[in-house]
Design brief:
Layout (H helix, E strand, L loop, with lengths): L17 E3 L2 H4 L5 E6 L9 H16 L4 E6 L4 H13 L2 E7 L7 H8 L2 E6 L1 H4 L5 H8 L5 E3 L7 H8 L11 E5 L4 H9 L5 E5 L8 H8 L8 E4 L12 H14 L8 H13 L8 E6 L15
Parallel strand pairs: 2-10, 3-4, 3-6, 4-5, 7-8, 7-10, 8-9
Antiparallel strand pairs: 1-2
Helix pairs in contact: 2-3, 2-7, 3-4, 7-8
Length: 305
């Protein structure tokens, strides 16, 4: 089922579709289980990345900033999305990278291909990323910089993520998404009816700690009926094992949907376990959000797609 939404000059949102999953996969444990395929928007500027960057890039362009500066690791979907968006908007881009890479990862090489200038920092130095003085000391030589936090985690990023509500019908009882910076969950919680229960799957150890931060940002009237789950991290952020790869392949064979190993695969694995444990009611209708990031699968061994 195709959705109707506003077209843009960079990304055509109409490429997103809502795809029902194979009933065999969820064994009819719920009334409906669909996936919002935001991964189809673009190979690099896909999923929630476009929505979190959109208002930031528009603001920078409208206020005569010349350079977008942002942050990420060696396989960051946010970095490559920012590099692509900046080039399309006629802006320069700078990526402050966590870690030093003598050999560029495929993601970082793609950033360079999109004309992003990379600045490498130690992991200890990177902890200063929220300190504007530190950022300006690193990137101040670039012209008219506009700083976008890691993961697009600012007010404009959250407002942009909230625009995803246009795809989500009120008939869904549960909205399922993966949580990195918390930006998308906050944006959607602020925009969606409180009656819709939002489930955030955090792909890192003890990720429920993010609940305090999310709760401090969500508008008070909407700060309810959401929950974080961190049981299915597969060893920690950006970690995976053979079992996860097997799951990704089986999910693709059954649903013809590719997942990314960092976020959506762990989310869907956890969701399936909850379905098997009869966590839901048979009348529940679930919408899972595919947040893209498939470019990171280039280093995954054994995938069939």
């Amino acid at each position: 089922m195709k959705t109707t939404c506003v077209n843009t000059d960079i990304i055509d949102d109409r490429k997103a579709v809502i795809q029902p999953l194979n009933k065999f996969w969820y064994q009819s444990k719920v009334a409906a289980l669909d996936m919002l395929r935001l991964d189809l928007l673009h190979p690099l500027l896909s999923g929630n990345k476009w929505f979190k960057l959109r208002l930031n890039a528009m603001f920078a362009k409208d206020h005569d900033y010349k350079t977008l500066v942002t942050f990420g690791g060696g396989y960051s979907n946010h970095l490559i999305a920012t590099a692509f968006a900046a080039r399309k908007w006629g802006l320069k881009s700078v990526g402050i990278v966590r870690g030093n890479y003598e050999t560029l990862t495929p993601t970082l090489q793609e950033c360079v291909n999109e004309n992003m200038e990379l600045i490498f920092t130690t992991r200890e130095e990177y902890k200063n990323k929220d300190n504007p003085d530190w950022v300006y000391n690193l990137a101040g030589r670039f012209e008219d910089i506009y700083i976008i936090p890691e993961g697009g985690a600012n007010e404009k990023g959250r407002a942009g993520a909230g625009l995803m509500d246009r795809f989500i019908k009120n008939t869904y009882s549960h909205i399922v998404l993966s949580v990195g910076s918390g930006t998308t969950l906050i944006g959607l919680r602020d925009k969606l009816p409180v009656s819709q229960y939002i489930m955030g799957f955090v792909p890192m150890k003890e990720g429920k700690y993010m609940g305090k931060y999310i709760s401090s940002i969500v508008q008070p009237p909407k700060n309810k009926n959401w929950e974080l789950f961190d049981e299915w991290h597969f060893g920690g952020f950006a970690k995976w094992n053979k079992d996860l790869i097997v799951f990704m392949n089986e999910f693709y064979e059954e649903n013809k949907i590719p997942l990314d190993a960092i976020y959506t695969a762990k989310m869907m694995y956890g969701l399936q376990q909850m379905l098997l444990d009869n966590h839901f009611s048979s009348c529940d209708k679930i919408l899972c959000i595919h947040t893209g990031g498939l470019q990171g699968n280039s280093i995954m061994p054994g995938l069939i797609y």
